[in-house]
Design brief:
- With 123 residues, this protein is mostly beta strands.
- The strands form 2 sheets. Strands 2, 4, 5, 6, 9, 10 and 11 form a 7-stranded mixed β-sheet that branches. It has a 4-stranded antiparallel β-sheet with strand order 1-3-8-7, with no helix packed on it.
- A hairpin with a 6-residue loop joins β4 and β5.
- It is globular and about 50 Å long.
Length: 123
Amino acid sequence: QVQLVETGGGKVQPGGSLRLSCEATGTIFGINTMGWYRQIPGKQRELVARVTSGDDGDKPTYDDSVKGRFTISIDNTKNTLYLQMNILLPEVTAVYYCYLGHLDPAHGPRYYWGQGTHVTVSA
């Protein structure tokens, strides 16, 4: 089993910054992908950013709405994912969820989710 714990959410004024962290613990068979989704009440969960590991290293992918303002990074030595969010706007207010995907040699691909952390951008 893998457990994900997100921290760093909170309330910030428009134009401010927050840094989310997601620590993965448990039995991890190498991280294939790790990323952040967000969900606004009444709407579907949507991808914000993710990191995919491959032969060429870790490749980040961003939703167009956050490009240039958000930066995703991963510390593989700590199994911790980060999301630096700058120039925050009210429309990014949501619950942010971390996920991890890895290849369990006994059970195949497995995905895990954190419990979510609230981000509120408001004056």
